[in-house]
Amino acid sequence: MSQSELTAALHAVITRLPHYPASTAFAALLTLWLGEHLNANALPELAGRKIRLRVSDLGLTLLFRSVPDGFIPCAGNEADVTLTASSKDFLQLAMRREDPDTLFFARRLAMEGDTELGLLVKNTLDALDPAALRIRLPAPGAVFRLLQATIRRPWSGSTDPAQRIG
């Protein structure tokens, strides 16, 4: 199976899945990776703001927001800012092998919604020491507690499943 056939097969499956489970896992990973630098305490301008990432080639949508101790997933379709790129381009950005401005002007990265929020996130990431961006593997217990808190938090305060997710 070629890479394009694999990507097409993944796209066909992923677009049919609800985005909340993937958003939950991504919010947990983002909290472990950047939570201390990009949380609502470090950047009050991010507090409660919804960010959506669309991975165009996979049909994957991730929706999350900043809270004081990191990030939590969100349900629904509304976002303050949406960033769209291919999985390869998002990976290159995460590894700091590509500059977001280069991808934006090459039309490989699109931003919709609150551009000030998008630029705040971009500029904050650019200002971070590369050593701070290294993923440090936490203890399994810490990962379990984080996933448990991430999953539990959006469900609190409501008995109606449709209203439980923030």
**CATH topology, anyone?**
Nonspecific Lipid-transfer Protein, Chain A
User: Which ranges are low-confidence, i.e. pLDDT below 50, for 5 or more consecutive residues?
Assistant: 155-166
Q: Distance between termini?
A: 39 Å
Number of helices: 6
CATH architecture field: 2-Layer Sandwich
Strand order of the largest sheet: 3-2-1-4-5
Strand content: 15-25%
Question: Rg, please?
Answer: 16 Å
Would you state the CATH class? Answer: Alpha Beta
Helix content: 40-55%
- Structural class computed from helices and strand pairing: alpha+beta
How many structurally independent domains? 1
- Biggest sheet character: 5 strands, mixed
Mean pLDDT value: 79
What brief labels describe this structure?
alpha+beta; 166 residues; 5 strands; disordered C terminus; five-stranded mixed beta sheet; globular
Which secondary structure elements does this structure contain, and how are they paired or packed?
Layout: H1 3-14, H2 19-34, E1 50-55, E2 60-67, E3 70-73, E4 81-85, H3 87-94, H4 100-105, E5 109-113, H5 115-127, H6 140-155
Parallel strand pairs: 1-4
Antiparallel strand pairs: 1-2, 2-3, 4-5
Helix pairs in contact: 2-6
Compact description:
Helix content is about 45%, strand content about 15%.
What this model shows, in words?
The protein has one domain (3-154): SCP2 sterol-binding domain (Nonspecific Lipid-transfer Protein, Chain A). It has six helices and five strands; from the N terminus they run H-H-E-E-E-E-H-H-E-H-H. The chain has helices spanning 3-14, 19-34, 87-94, 100-105, 115-127, 140-155; strands spanning 50-55, 60-67, 70-73, 81-85, 109-113. Strands 3-2-1-4-5 form a five-stranded mixed β-sheet. The longest helix has 16 residues, at 19-34. It is globular, with a radius of gyration of 16 Å.
